[in-house]
Amino acid sequence: MANSEPKSRRAFLKGAVATGGALAATSAARAQETPDPLITEVQPWASELGDGVDETPYGLPIHFESDVIRRNVPWLTADAISSVNFTPIHALDGTITPQGCAFERHHSGAIELAKPDYRLMINGLVDQPLVFTYEDLERFPRINRVFFCECAANTGMEWAGAQLNGAQFTHGMIHNMEYSGVPLRTLLEEAGVKPEGKWIYVEGADASSNGRSIPLEKALDDVLVAFKANGEALRKEQGYPVRLVVPGWEGNMWIKWLRRIEVLEGPVESREETSKYTDTLADGTSRKWTWVMDAKSVVTSPSPQAPITHGPGPLVITGLAWSGRGAISRVDVSKDGGKTWETARLANPGEPMALSRFYLDTTWDGKEMLLQARAMDETGYVQPTKAALREVRGENSIYHNNCIQTWWVKETGEAENVEVS
Amino acid sequence: MSKYRKLLIAGTILAASVTTPVLAEKLGLGRAALPDEIAAWNLDVSPGGAGLPDGSGSVTDGEEIFSERCAACHGEFAEGVGNWPKLAGGEGTLANKDPLKTVGSYWPYLSTVWDYVHRSMPFGEAQSLEPDQVYAITAYILYSNYLVDEDFVLSKDNFLDVGMLNADGFIVDHRETAEAHFWDAPCMEDCKNDVKITMHASVLDVTPDTVDDAIPAAAEAVPAAAPAEATDASQMAAADVIVTEVDPEVVAAGEKVFKKCKACHQIGDGAENKVGPELNGVVGRAAASIEGFKYSKPMIAAGEEGLVWTDETLTEYLADPRKFIKGTKMTFGGLKKAEDLHAIIAYLASVGS
Fold first, then answer.
1. Do B44 and A268 touch (CB under 8 A)?
2. Which of A54, A278, B249, B283 has its CA 20 to 30 A from that of B141?
3. CB within 8 A of A220, min separation 6: which ones?
C-alpha cells in the first residue's frame, strides 16, 4: 500500500529537478538503464482480484485523488455557515465540474429540503397565482443546457494585490454543469404575467432567503428552473431539489432551494443587491445591477497548486475561459508577463455562457515564465489587465474582478501568484 | 458508403430537432395559491414601503431587543464582533482605501433593513421576530448611526421620512460605456518594454496550507462509509463507549438539533470559542469555566455559585436561556420540544468529552 500513496508535492518537485538536470537535450525518449519492475515483475493488481460490483453503490473518486477537494479560506468569513469554498480547478480538466467538488456558497447553511416538502409559488402581478409541487415541475417540457456559475466575488481577494497562492483560491468560485430543467418562461406563462409586471423577485426556502430581483426580460429569455445537474439530482449544497439557473449572471442570483417567484413593477432592492453585490468605485459611488460576469480566464496548470514536475521539454499549458456575454472566441497565452502573446487551442468551439477549456501545447526550456491567459468573447470583449481594471474601478469593488492573472513559474517548476508591472 | 450517408442524414435530423419546446397553451399544472399561503411567504418590502405591515417600535425598545437578540454578533452598539457585520459607523469612508460599509454609511434604502431583519435574522433563528420588534430593531440601528434621536419611534407611517446617507450613492451598471475600451483589439507583440514582478502572494502568506501539509492528511481520509471521527484511535474507542451507553439514533437526532446552535458554537475536533464557548465536554463541566471566553456577568456569577451543566440544568437552560440565566449573552430563544432537549443533551454528551 505504502508505495501507492501519492507523494507530497514537495517530493515530486525534488524528483522533477533531479530528472530535469539529468535530461539529455535530444528529442529521443529518455533512456532506461535497468528494467522497470512495474513491467518485469507481476504486480498484485495483475494477479489478485479487485472489488466486486457493489463495493460502492454510489462511487467516490479513487483515494489516490483525495486531494482533489473543495477548500475554504477560514479568515474570509465570520463562520463556515455563511461562507464559501472553492472548486479545485487546478486539478480538473475538460469543462464539466463534478457536483461533489463544485464550490459552495451559502448564506444560512445548506438545508435539507425533501421533494415531498417542496413547494414553488408564483405570485404578484400574474393572472393566477400558482403553487407547484416538485412532481408538477417534472411534468413541464424541459431542456438541457450547460452553463457556468461564478460567484461575483471570485478573485475578489486580489483587487488590492496578489493574495492567495493557488488557482483554486483565486478563481475557484466557479463551476460548470449541465442542467436539466424547465424554462422559467414556461412557468411564468402558466401563471400569466400582467402587462405592468417588469421584474421578478426570486427567493429560496432557507433561512437567508437570499432574495434577488431580476428584470422580466432576462427571466423570459434563458433562465431555467433546474432540478438536475450533470444528469443527477442537485446536491444538497447546490440547492436540492430545485435551483434557479441565470446564465452568464452572477452566482448570487442562482437562487438555491427556490421557493417563490414574485412578479413586480420594480426591484425589491434586497440586502443582496444593495449592501452586497454592488461595486464601489474609487470616488465612493457604487455600481448596482452589475449582473453580467465579464469575460475571464485563468491558467489552471501549471499553477501554484499544480507545479511542473517533469523538467524541460514538452509541456501542456491549460486553463479555463468563460464569458457572461456569450461564447469564448479566443484565448491568448503569454509566457513573459504580457509582452508577447500566442493564441491557444480551444478544446471545443465556445458555447454561450459556458466554460471553455484551452490548451497551449508547448516546449518548456526550463527557464522561469510569467504565465498569463487572456480571454476574448464573441462580442469582442478582451479580458483586461488588473491595472486597466483599477484605472476604471479603483481597488474597492470587491466583486467582478476579471483581471488577467499572472503565475510566476520558476526554474524548479514551482509557481507563485504574483502581480507584474 | 451507404451506411455513412445514413449516419449523415440521421445527424441532420438530430440537429434539426434540438430546439426549445414551445407550448401552444397552458398545461393546467399546479394549483391556485391561497390568500393565506401568499400572505405567509410574500414578505418582501420594497423601497416605496410596499409590503410593510402595521406596527411601530421605539429606539428604547429596540436597544433592549438588540442587546438580547443581535448584540452577540453585531455588538451592543451595532459595531460588530469579530468578522460579523458592523451595522454602524463608516460615514464618509466610501472613497477611502478600506471603506466601512454599514447601514449608516452604505445602505441606500431603509426598506432593505426592515426586510432583511424580518426575514433572515437573527442568524439561526430567522423569522422569529414580530413586526413591532423589527420596527424597534430598525429604529435602534438608525439611532446607532446617528440618523434619528433617542426618543424616535419608527412606524409604517413615518418610514419613508427617514433619510439614508448613501441614498444617492449608486449608479446603474455602466460597464459598456465606462469600459468600452475593453472591447478594443488586443496587442499580440511588443506589448510592453519591461515586465517586473511588483507583488508576491507569498509575502502576505494568507493562503491555507494545502500544498504540502494538507495533501498527505487528505490522502489518509477514510472512505465515506466509515464514521468521520474514526481517523483517530482514541476517538474510535470513545465512540465505542458511547454506543453502549446511549441510543445512537437519539445522538443523531441531537446532532440535527445542534444545527440551531452551530452559528455560534463549535464542538468536536479542534472546536474553538466563537460567538459562544466551545462545547467539548460541556455535560458535567462547571458553568463559565472555559478559559479565554468572555462570559456574561450573570453566567460568571452562576459558575461561581457552583452551577454545573448536567442533564437537568442544561434541560432547563436550553428550554428558555434568558429565563434560567437572566442576562446571558446567549441570544437563542430556546428549544420547545422535550425530545429535542433530550436529543441535544445526548449529542453534547457524546462529542469530544
1. yes
2. A278
3. A184, A185, A188
